[in-house]
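Task 17 of the worksheet. Students: predict the tertiary structure of the chain below and write it out as structure tokens. Keep your answer in the requested format; marks are given for formatting as well as content.
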Amino acid sequence: MLDLEPYDAERHLVLGTKDSAETLAALEYAWYQADDSHTAPLYCARGTLPYLLAGNLRAANKFFLLFTSYLSKQPSLGVQEVSTKSSDMRVYPSLPLLNFLGLLLLAVERGEAGLFRQLKSHYSGQLKDVNWNDALEQIGEMYFGIKIPRQGNPMMDMLGSMLGGGFGGGGAKKGGRGGNPPVAGLD
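Model answer:
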């Protein structure tokens, strides 16, 4: 049971109060400090992606800003500040997935599907090393209207077409009768 406590804490904080992002950022950063420096994006994603999936962009931004502000105090990471009229961002040349998360938040704010696709394409080499694909597909659907490709099961599709449907696959119902015959003893 003790092994599940961090996950329960994360789940609770993602669904928690307006102050939960601050608590979760401090918690994830504390866990990160016990790990290697290159793992920072993994800990940052553990707050940023769930908040986005919960539809809470404000908390995702707050979590990301707090987590990266803790990180910026480490001179070994070589953070660079980038500012525009509309936003400020820290860039970490040695942590491209952390930059991806920051740019993802900006893309969600803008709501431009093309920007989201371009971002995923640009970071595709790094994204293949992490297990964020399902989350990113859901974020693409939620915020950018990009439909998640549904893949059928080839065996079920074949069975469905041979038996006239009902197995999540291809065939339409055949025959003139509507519905299934009644089962005796069930009302």
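Marker's comment: The domain at 2-144 is CATH 1.25.40.10 (Serine Threonine Protein Phosphatase 5, Tetratricopeptide repeat). Strands lie at 80-83, 88-91.
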